[in-house]
Write a structure and sequence with these properties.
By secondary structure, the chain is an alpha/beta fold. It has two domains: 16-239, 2-Layer Sandwich (Nucleotidyltransferase, domain 5), CATH 3.30.420; 261-299, no CATH class. Helices cover 36% and strands 17% of the residues. It has ten helices and ten strands. The strands form three sheets. A six-stranded mixed beta sheet has the order 4-3-2-1-5-6, with helices on both faces. It has a two-stranded antiparallel sheet with strand order 7-8. Strand 1 and strand 2 form a beta hairpin. Residues 250-301 have low confidence and may be disordered.
C-alpha cells in the first residue's frame, strides 16, 4: 500500500468513526434513561417494540452472522408469576410464554463461519438462512410485517453500540423503519444505581429473570434468543413496582458451582481467571498475588 493510499484509508476510517459517533448521539438522545421515562413512553406507544440483537462476524466489524428480532405488541403485559424465576424448572415455561406473547425471528447469513457446535440452540423454529446480499431485504420484510395502523414499531436493545454500527454502515435502509431507538442498558444502570453499565445477564438475574440466562453448557450466545431475552426484560421493567427494584444487581451469580474449568485433551485441568470483583473466594480456591481472599486473582479448584 502506498503512502497516499494509507492516508486516504485513515481519512475514510476517521470520517466513518465520527459519522458513527454522531449517529449514535442522534439516535439515543431521545431514548428513555429511567424506568419512569420508559413507562411514560410505553403508555403512549401504539406501535409496539422490536427487540434486536446481532451476532458479529470475526472477519468484519460491521457484518453479522445472525440477526435476532422479537416483536412486542403494544400494551403487552405479562404477570410476574408468568415470567419470574431463577431456576431451570421455570426456563421452559418462560420460553413458551414468550413464544405466545411475542413474534420472534432468527435470520442467519449463509457462508459465514459460526461455531454452532459450541453455541446455544435457537429456542423456536429453525433460523431463516439468507444470502449476504439478500439479508437487508429479508429483515425489511419481517419489520414491515410488524407495522400497525399507527406506524412502525420502535427499536429496543441492550448495549446497542455494535448494532448501531452495523445498521449505519451495512443495513442503512433498516434505520428508516424505526421512529425511535431505545437502549435498556442505561435504564438498568439507573434502576440499580450502579456506576458501570451492567451486562444483560446480570440485569436479567436482578430483575428476577435468571432462568432464561445462558447456561454454561449452552456455549456461546444466540442472537435470536438474546432478542427474546431483551423483549422479556422490557416487559418486566414496565411491570416493576414503582417503589424499588427486586434486588441488588448481580456481579457474579452463576448456576451451580463456582468452578470454572475445562479438561484439556491430555486430561490436565486448565483454569480460567476470576475477576477481582467476584471476591470473596469460594472454598477451595487457590489465591495468587495478594494471598487469601483479600486481593489479587484467584482460581477455582
Amino acid at each position: 500500500m502506498s503512502e497516499i493510499e494509507r492516508i486516504e484509508k485513515e481519512k475514510t476510517k476517521a470520517r466513518q468513526t465520527q459519522a458513527w459517533r454522531d449517529f449514535c448521539n442522534r439516535c439515543l438522545e431521545k431514548s428513555p434513561c429511567t424506568v419512569q421515562d420508559l413507562r411514560r413512553f410505553a403508555a403512549e406507544n401504539t406501535t409496539g417494540f422490536v427487540a434486536i440483537d446481532f451476532d458479529g462476524w470475526t472477519e468484519s466489524t460491521t457484518e453479522v452472522t445472525e440477526m435476532g428480532l422479537t416483536y412486542v405488541p403494544p400494551s403487552t403485559r405479562l404477570p410476574p408469576e408468568e415470567i419470574d424465576g431463577q431456576t431451570l424448572e421455570r426456563r421452559i415455561h418462560v420460553i413458551s410464554v414468550a413464544r405466545a406473547a411475542f413474534q420472534s425471528h432468527s435470520i442467519r447469513i449463509k457462508g459465514r463461519k459460526r461455531d454452532d457446535a459450541h453455541r446455544e440452540e435457537y429456542w423456536y423454529e429453525p433460523p431463516q438462512q439468507v444470502e449476504p446480499e439478500e439479508a437487508e431485504e429479508e429483515v425489511l420484510k419481517v419489520l414491515r410485517g410488524f407495522r400497525t395502523d399507527s406506524g412502525p414499531p420502535c427499536l429496543v436493545g441492550f448495549g446497542l453500540v455494535f448494532e448501531l454500527r452495523v445498521l449505519l454502515f451495512t443495513y442503512p435502509r433498516l434505520l428508516e423503519e424505526f421512529p425511535i431507538i431505545i437502549d435498556l442498558q442505561p435504564v438498568a444502570q439507573d434502576l440499580y444505581s450502579v456506576s458501570k453499565q451492567p451486562s444483560l445477564r446480570n440485569t436479567l438475574i436482578a430483575c428476577g429473570l435468571g432462568c432464561i440466562t445462558k447456561r454454561r453448557a449452552d456455549g456461546m450466545l444466540c442472537a435470536g434468543n438474546d432478542a427474546t431475552r431483551i423483549a422479556l426484560l422490557l416487559v418486566k421493567m414496565l411491570g416493576l413496582p414503582p417503589a424499588s427494584p427486586q434486588g441488588p444487581l448481580a456481579t457474579a451469580e452463576f448456576e451451580g458451582t463456582n468452578k470454572r474449568y475445562n479438561w484439556s485433551k491430555n486430561g490436565f485441568l486448565r483454569f480460567r481467571k476470576f475477576w477481582p470483583e467476584t471476591r470473596p473466594m469460594p472454598p477451595g480456591a487457590l489465591s495468587i498475588y495478594g494471598g487469601g481472599g483479600a486481593g489479587g486473582w484467584w482460581y477455582a479448584m
